[in-house]
Specification:
The chain is an alpha+beta fold and 318 residues long. It contains 10 helices and 12 strands. The longest helix has 13 residues. The structure holds the ligand Nc1nc2c(c(=O)[nH]1)N[C@H]1C(S)=C(S)[C@@H](COP(=O)(O)O)O[C@H]1N2 and molybdenum atom.
Length: 318
Amino acid sequence: MDTKSIPLHPSEVTPKDQYLSRRDFLKQAGIVTAGAALLAACGTSADETPVTPVPQNLSADQETSSLFKELTAEESILSYNNYYEFSTDKERVAKLSKDFQSSPWTIEVGGLVNNPQNFSIEEILGNFSIEERIYRMRCVEAWSMVIPWNGFPLAELLKAVDPTPDAKFVRFETLADPDQMPGLSNGLYPWPYQEGLRLDEALNDLTILSTGLYGETLASQNGAPIRLVVPWKYGFKSIKSIVKIELTAEQPSTFWEDIAPKEYGFYANVNPEIDHPRWSQASERRIGELQRRDTLPFNGYAEEVAHLYEGMDPATLY
Ligand SMILES: Nc1nc2c(c(=O)[nH]1)N[C@H]1C(S)=C(S)[C@@H](COP(=O)(O)O)O[C@H]1N2
Ligand SMILES: [Mo]
């Protein structure tokens, strides 16, 4: 994928137009990679200065440039959130998570690995190179966004801990701190929030750990300081504020499958043809747009991931 850009770590919140002009500035300074420069050249950028493309995968670039035009406003990404540890009310999460302590932070990575490690967030930012990935995000509730994440492939972190041949799945866990997370007092939910991927899904290049979006450090409501992003699956797979990653031999339990196994499965691949028992998944409401859009198989990433499920019954992949 040529969606990579340079690491960006500004601290203040920047609206979308400033983000776009900052990208332009970086392009003029000659410090964006070819993929990002090309998408700025054919995207919505005000500066139409031609750039010299280098040979690369054109279909990936065309894809990226069309998504660039669809970016959801940063304000919406920061104010409409699912994060049940804080609230089930999407519009209250930002306020309730305002004082969340995401530093110091350690992620424990272990289980079936030869080299278990605890990483501080500073070690993660220092050891892995942060790229930009513009991805669609499709919630199982049938709304969607397009988000410019900053992060790095989960595969890089997994390589560092060296999974043993017995490792077949990856399990993730969110912090569960009742002093900071008022939603945890709801004892109906099986805290801590946990998620899982098959190892080959976790190693796919589309799967990232994100530490920011719109070039800014990740906000609490989006899962600071580090969260998973798996763009071909419903949003609930993209677990926030991760404290633990464990390689396992067995398929792990997941938060939503525990609660309602007939409604939310382990795979949760976006599929417009498999309806949720209580609503259709054929179309979606893109936040910031008036008309609904058709939902795409694998959320538009079939080319990259459909091969992972060859021979499996799609009815088991909801
Ligand atoms: N720990 C945790 N992770 C979570 C959730 C949650 O409630 N708790 N909600 C999920 C759901 S349903 C969605 S759609 C996305 C929303 O991510 P966003 O608020 O950053 O857009 O986060 C996912 N990750
Ligand atoms: Mo969701």
